[in-house]
Specification:
Number of helices: 4
Largest sheet: none
Radius of gyration: 28 Å
Structural class: mainly alpha
Shape: rod-shaped
Distance between the termini: 86 Å
Order of helices and strands: HHHH
Helix content: over 70%
Amino acid sequence: MPAHPDPLGRLEELARRTAQLEARMQAIDARQREIDRKNDNRITWLLGSLVYERLRDDPALRDFVRRELPSRLTERDGKRGLWQRLFPEDTGGPS
């Protein structure tokens, strides 16, 4: 019986274990990114719903949204009539 294990076999075993640990790290990282994405989406939804609810009653907020939102709207948003839904009194849409 040799005093020391086969160095090549030991290296192969360490390489296999390293690959397993890297795969586990990647899986944990992917789960964390998914959690972060879901949290970001939830925060966005909550803020959006807050702004949407307060839009009717806050003139300063209405002015801010009228000024800032047009640069974020796409042609598709325009076809959906989103501006008119927020500001039904505006017949022409964002300027």
